[in-house]
Amino acid sequence: MSGDPDDCSWLPTPEPQSPIVLGHRMWELLGAAVRLARAHGTDRMGVEHLLLTMLVDPTTIPSDQLRAMGLDPGVVFARLMASVPDLSGSDFN
C-alpha cells in the first residue's frame, strides 16, 4: 500500500458484475459522515469521518468484539478525534 489515502490498487479487481446496492443504513452513515466533515470545515470526507460516525452509534459496529480485542470504542473515538487535523479540539456534533 502506498501512502496515498485514495490508492486502492491493493484491492483485487473483480470481474464485471452487477452493481452493488447500498442499503439505507449505509446511506445514513455516509450522509452523517459527510455532515461531520462539512461541520468541521472540510470538503473531503475520509474514512476517519465514517469511523467516528460509526463509533457514536453502538449498533453499527460490534462494540463487544472491539472490547474483546482490548479496545474501548470511547477511547478509540477520543484518540481519533484528537489525531485528525480538521477535528482536533472540537466537539462531535
Describe the structure.
The chain is mainly α. It has a domain at 43-88. The chain contains 4 helices and no strands. It has helices spanning 24-39, 47-56, 63-68, 73-83. Helix 1 (24-39) crosses helix 2 (47-56) and helix 2 (47-56) runs antiparallel to helix 4 (73-83). The N and C termini lie far apart (32 Å). The model has no long low-confidence stretch (mean pLDDT 81).
Order of helices and strands: HHHH
Largest sheet: none
Treating each run of at least 4 consecutive H or I residues as one helix, how many helices? 4
Measured as a percent range, the helix fraction is 40-55%
Low-pLDDT runs of 5+ residues are none
Q: Could you give the distance between the termini?
A: 32 Å
Structural class: mainly alpha
Summarize the structure.
Helices cover 46% and strands 0% of the residues. The protein is mostly helical and 93 residues long.
Layout of helices and strands, plus pairs?
Blueprint: H1 24-39, H2 47-56, H3 63-68, H4 73-83
Helix pairs in contact: 1-2, 2-4
How would you describe this structure in keywords?
93 residues; mainly alpha
